[in-house]
Amino acid sequence: MGKPKGFIEYLRELPLDRPALERIRDWNEFHLHLDEKALREQGARCMDCGVPFCHTGSLINGMAAGCPIHNLIPEWNDLIYRGLWHEALERLHKTNNFPDFTGRVCPAPCEGSCVLGLISPAVTIKNIECAIADRGWDEKWIKPAPPPFRTGKKVAVIGSGPAGLCAAAQLNHAGHLATVFERADRIGGLLMYGIPNMKLDKALVQRRIDQMCAEGVTFVTNTEVGKDFPSRNLLREFDAVILCTGATKPRDLPVEGRHLKGIHFAMEFLHANTKSLLDEKKNGAFISAEGKDVMVIGGGDTGTDCVGTAMRHGCKSLAQLEILPRPPAARAKDNPWPEWPKVYKMDYGQEEAAAKFGGDPRAYLVTAKKFVGDESGHVKEVHTVQIEWKRNEKGQFTAAEVPGSEQVRPVQLALLALGFVGPEQALLEQLGLERDARTNIKAEHEKYATSIRGIFAAGDARRGQSLVVWAFNEGRGAARECDRYLMGSTHLP
Amino acid sequence: MRETRINTTTSPNGWPVKQGLYDPQFEHDSCGVGFVVNIKGKKSHKIIQDALTILVNLNHRGACGCEANTGDGAGILMQMPHGFFKEVSRKEKIKLPPLGDYGVAMVYLPRDPNERRTCETMFENIVVEEGQKFLGWRIVPTDNSTLGATAQESEPFMQQAFIRRDAKLADDMAFERKLYVIRKRAERAIRYGGIKGGHWFYISSLSCRTLVYKGMLLTEQMEAYYPDLKNPAMESALALVHSRFSTNTFPSWDRAHPYRYIAHNGEINTLRGNVNWMHARQAMCQSDLFGDDFKKLLPVINTDGSDSGMFDNCLELLVLAGRSLPHAIMMMIPEPWTNHATMSDEKKAFYEYHSCLMEPWDGPASIAFTDGKKIGAVLDRNGLRPSRYYITTDDMVIMASEVGVLDVPAARIKQKGRLQPGRMFLVDTEEGRIVADEEIKQKIATEQPYRQWLNDHLLDLSSVGEFPHGTELSHNTVLQRQRAFGYTFEDLRIVMAPMARDGVEALGSMGCDTPLAVMSNKPQLLYNYFKQLFAQVTNPPIDCIREELVTSAVTTIGSERNLLKPKPMSCNLIKLHSPILTNEQFAKLKYIRQAGFKSVTLPILFKAADGQAGLAKAMDDLCARASSAVEAGANILILSDRGVDVELAAMPALLAVAGVHHHLIREGTRTRVGLVLESGEPREVHHFSLLIGYGAGAINPYVAFETLDDMIRQGLLVNIKHKDACKNYVKAAIKGVVKVISKMGISTIQSYRGAQIFEAIGLHPSIVEKYFTGTASRVGGIGLDVIASEVQMRHSAAFPDREVNGRVLGVGGVYQWRADGEDHLFNPQTVHKLQSACRNADYKAFKDYSQAVNEQSKKSCTLRGLLELKTGSQPPVPIEEVEPLEAILMRFKSGAMSYGSISKEAHEALAVAMNRIGGKSNTGEGGEDPARYQLEPNGDSKNSAIKQVASARFGVTSLYLVKARELQIKMAQGAKPGEGGQLPGLKVYPWIAKVRHATPGVGLISPPPHHDIYSIEDLAELIHDLKNANHHARISVKLVAEVGVGTIAAGVAKAHADVVLISGHDGGTGASPQTSIKHAGIPWELGLAETHQTLVLNNLRSRITVETDGQLKTGRDVVVAALLGAEEFGFATAPLVSLGCIMMRVCHLDTCPVGVATQNPALRQNFKGDPAHAVNFMRFIGQEMRELMAQLGFRTVNEMIGRTDLLEAREAIEHWKARGLDFNNILYQPKAPEEFGRYCQIAQDHGLEKALDNTALLKICEPALERREKVEASLEIRNVNRVVGTIVGSEITRRYGAQGLPEDTVKVHFKGSAGQSFGAFMPPGLTWILEGDANDYLGKGLSGGKIILYPPEGSNFVAEENIITGNVALYGATGGEAYIRGMAGERFCVRNSGVSAVVESVGDHGCEYMTGGRVVVLGQTGRNFAAGMSGGVACVLDESGNFSQNCNQDMVLLERLEDPAEIEEIRLMIDRHAKHTRSQRAFKILALWEEMVPKFVKVMPKDYKRMLECIRRVEKTGLNGDEAVMAAFEENAKDVARVGGG
Asked: The pTM is what?
């Protein structure tokens, strides 16, 4: 550790974001960068703990505490404090194939369990990670490095989201020929179409894909396995398969009026938006929020992305419903460090809405009860109700409506961001794979082997909806196990 | 036969054989030693009588076992009592020739007449075969009626055999040699010949000059047992006596001293190496004097003897083969000559030359020796044993471990002296004079032109010309090699960077919770299977920091020659200043062309793919090639692993070195070559230590150097050049190795080489026997197959068939937790779970935690994890019937963590918690703020029940001692056994300094040894002292587990400790070198089991409470500990975690963010712990224990103790390495009689009723005690009156607190020789005036009292030139005054922190580690004055102007007395001295005061001065008092360079 008292000397500092009212006029990334001196000081705040909880990656009460891919955070914090960016990048790449992605989109459970967080705001781990990766690109340290040796084994990776990309990259490192199937027109899955451009610039995704291509990974787009490519051919043409198809089945809101026009799942909205953006609006086929009263139902990251996107469309008004109570400003007693901190914070979308319309658009403890349409069958209003959480006789929390709390709000665009309930089943059924009680593909964590020999599963398709960084963890792990399966032993981490 | 104890577990002579974890080879003994001699050689019976009186007066230095009437051994060596033999031989019809023409053997024989007859016949035949005449036997009359049962049972039949010299033998010496041959032959044929009853056979002495009477006796039994000794005809001009204190209670007739030439008080630490080297060397020995007889003498060393016995074996050979006795002694125990500024060149040359012949036998020693004509004594190079002598006007010399052992009227005394470190004291009765050290040595040193010989033949490597060597490598090449040798990023960052940058070893904290190598899932380097041994109790560690002058890293390489025939060419060796060679130095050695040297390089590579078979074959080939190279005349064997590639892997370097070393020892050619290792593998101090310890003469760690180079290239090391980085690295490595050896009490690398001071854990016996012969390995473990596969794993990671994921180093995760790294018991999950359980008082959560820990433990971390509780084997009991939680909690203790290492908040929270549950907290070694003795308003108490007494004695005052319920003597600490505690200057805040009586901002290092404990009898003394200081407190001795700890614990029990604590190696620490944290000591499971087994075998278990600690974390851990033999339990890390510690492992940096291990006020505010959290932890543990006890079927803890039958090794140990472990030794139950108690049931007898305080002083002082009235009295005193005044002092403190009574309330005038620890811990109000002299530890821990000491009236000697008090006076004193008219011994005022003392001369190491007080020396000092002194002031009257040479100026400035106030203060001190002691010297100085002032040198600690100046400066800004001190501290702390304190 370069500076034992750095954490006493320096305060936490993050780069400023672009001003909300300015950034909603374009689709460019909204984060700015810190200068090197400031970054090094931030690195010096790391205490180089004997037990670095940031690097742990465990589940406490179902939430990630620490980094699921075990980024060697104290090591690269120290290295950037010393100005050794190249070495930092090497240490970072040791555990993370795409720190430029996690450095932007990860909710950073590492910071939630940063030991410094016990006494002072956590180290800006995520920002440092991002800075190291960007520096790597700027300095051209990151460049294609094809493996020196080919095993001759071929592996199909189904799905090009974060899990699939990590799996493919790792397999390729180990000398296997990886073919990634993607049903969309572009590679990247959630990274490409799920996360809007202002949060993760698609050019950054593309350059990683280009890098992988140059390293020898084959990408096949517009090809849905099971439809466009017969699933029975998988194990004929490939020595192994890794399924990384994600948990793409959205949770619905089965209320009256759900069928009305103008009510969309968040992913439809976001996907179409990014596609049209990248296609340079050639098709113009996106769902516009312009001039509309928008309601986003669901308070997670996807909900926020919907808010941010709607703001950029120039919506007329915006509200966001969250069924849970508003989290406290600081950790509650039953949510101690190093658990994931359930605290109130404004994300970029809410900041933008607040800047434009005044106030946090989120309404807590509220849910939609029914939609009412106009004569053309288009939604025009939503009826909401307040919720109260009570324990039932079994001690479980259940939601109960508060009588008399109904409200009616005008809405022309409603976006359902209620999370995902599991993987789409068609391909799994075709393959005859066993599934678990939650309809996910059945495969043990750290083993990833499905009920069919030679087929592995990783990411949300196996674990259910989760963080990008868990997908990284699984993709890398599945590649390792696949390598072991193919070769009898493995050097993959 | 009455041998009731003889069964399968005891050897025929009554000694238990190796069983379970007990191994007789670790027995220690120590003792008192003395002699009387008439300088003119006038024989008398009186001398024998006097010697026996001395023996009786040394009784307290010996010991008795479980029976009061069985001693450990006593004996006497004298000149041949010809008159006596003439008289008695007549009765036996033996016709005795004149003195000198016959020899007498003192023989132990079997009691069975038939067996005896066989032995006798064999002996007689050997005498005749050797051409001498056998004259007859005489049965030695004995009376065993006073002997205890154990001694009687093992008592041999005693006879004397008379042998007549054959006329052909030219002289006395030829006859002595012949007798030696007879003895060696007889021993081999009879004692070791396997004949029935042969084990009884032992020859105490066989000589025509000397005779030994000895036995398993108490000192006072000698005369009664051997009526011969009372016979007035028995006359001698000299007599050497010895009283033994052994660590066991087993029969030991032959282990009594004296041996044939010596009696020894001490221990040889380098023994294993010395014996190995002697074994190797004897093959090359030839002697003209012995001729063909020489081979009859082999083996020279009888390895079943004690260390002293083996020393005697070697000395005997050297003397009989032609060297004079003093010469041989000088060879075996050389003075520290390398760093000696003033030693004559001839002497240096002598020592240097002889270092080419033989390594020193190193260890604390006071050896008295005689050949019947000369008698003398010598101390080891450190002077770690006391030896005092009187010379009388009637030509007598009386030398003994203490003064006062013989009454001599004052007027008869001509001189009082002491042996000095490395000095020899010799009386030559033929010449009729005392020969001074200088004279003897100068004479011997100039017998040959040693300097010339050295100049001609000893080649200094630095004088050899440079050779070209390696080129710079690319990063990738280095990386490849690093990976092949298993380097991790941690190795670079944590281990190597500080070495290269600062030239020091990395510090760490919070102990070790990673798996033993044999349980780790990661491939381990072979080094990690070895644990360093260290000295504790029976022998002191060396202080290699403050007493550097005795250490040396110089070694030699090349061929040794005939030890017995020294020639100029014998020193034809290469001299290395350090055993770690840079590439430049190594190239010189490799390409050496100088005459007489030939190097051969042997590769130590094998085909990785061939695995075990390949490795085994490669080892065999290597040994064969080594043999042929030696045959072909090579004398430098270079083992090299250069050339590792895709196919070839390096053999573990340690395996190669140790394998070749032992192979050549077995072949008898080892001393013909030097072993040099060129390897990429070693990089840490532990690696170097092992390689040297197993025989490497020099090591070139080339990848380590490449790594430094690469780190510089990468920017991981900045602002340093490669050359400097290497230099620093080598320096740090050497310092580290010297520290490792000093922990074992060894001072020179030369005698450490091959000394094998390690214990293997997890190696299969087959490996150990073949490659590491003689090393302890008690739980079995991996074989060559696993060793090979670990190499393969590293190799394939470095040369993968497919390269993946970039080429970077692995994480390691040994020092800091890493997901992909080594397992840790405290990891994110367990820390979190424990904290939430304790904070929320949630037992269910605690069970989660304990399950997680136990699982982890089972998987890979601990030995106990591999043991299963046998719940089915006895019926369970309902939990309600298990003894209540409260009863269990009383057995719990919190670990010793000093106030200073942890914050006030954390320290007090622990104390409150432990007091709430009825357990005991521990002060640690940093003292305690007296404010904590007041109860809190809510009834809580912050007073720690256990007060620790560690080597620095911080804050150990009479009050501190009186306020304890238990006093713990910390002999060692798990995280750094053999080293002193460290508190970095950063953490010595003003409030810490105050409690410790030290200077703020100055780092504190505790001395490695207690300077009042260099041996077991010293420990007994300190236990006795402390019991005197507070008879209500239990006395506990803290040891750290290592092989042999059970034997030490037995000694501790015999020394009357009430509790012995066996700490595991893994315990926490505030600051310690990483090497020590990771590699010293062993798990408590082994140490505890060994201790319990040994104590039961000795029938001592019932008298001592056994406690254990070391990463105890769950109820299951505690239950396992109880089943292995513990009845009390300590916890440290876990309760700290419950209070908020999150295992930052930065305690040493003062940056603990949660306020636990920091003194920084801002960080302390973050402390969120509450005593309730620790209470919850303890209760949870207790609760969990009760549940397990119910399942196991125990109602009380006492029932469980030692019940190893309820433990078993887990059946399905699937671990690829751990499955080779063998738990039989751990689970062994010694077969001792039923009536031997298995837990503590009998209170120790401390014998306080015999104390002078109890017999007289308390009564005398009653008016003062009760009514504060003045008291004056006079008393006679003798050396057996020890610790005089301490009980009275404790009563005063109990009644009147720290301030005691007004000055001089009690004045007692003593006359005579005071025993040890006179006036220890005396509080204010007591004035002890001693007219006579004092032994060691005068005024130990003085707490405000006053001591005045002057020679008796009527003395004719010059007071200031004669010794008046022994070693280590005023050790750890915190206040009071002392006036000493005369010379004091070594280590005067060590760790003084408050006493004002005046003395007229002091020995070596005066004022060492002093942190306060004022010392005036009115004359000469010894060497190394003021080493480590960081506070207080000393003034030395330096009339001869040589003081600066004797002063260690690392930490002090030498100034003149200038400040008038100060001059006046000193004058007043001298004035008081003159008044109190009537010192002529003081009167003279005062009379010439103005003239004298400029001759005083003021010794001013630099840090203290800076702090004082700083305070003065800030005071000018208006601050005062504590504020000023704090401001000064902060200013000081900014100057990072100054706060290291190292």
From this structure: 0.93
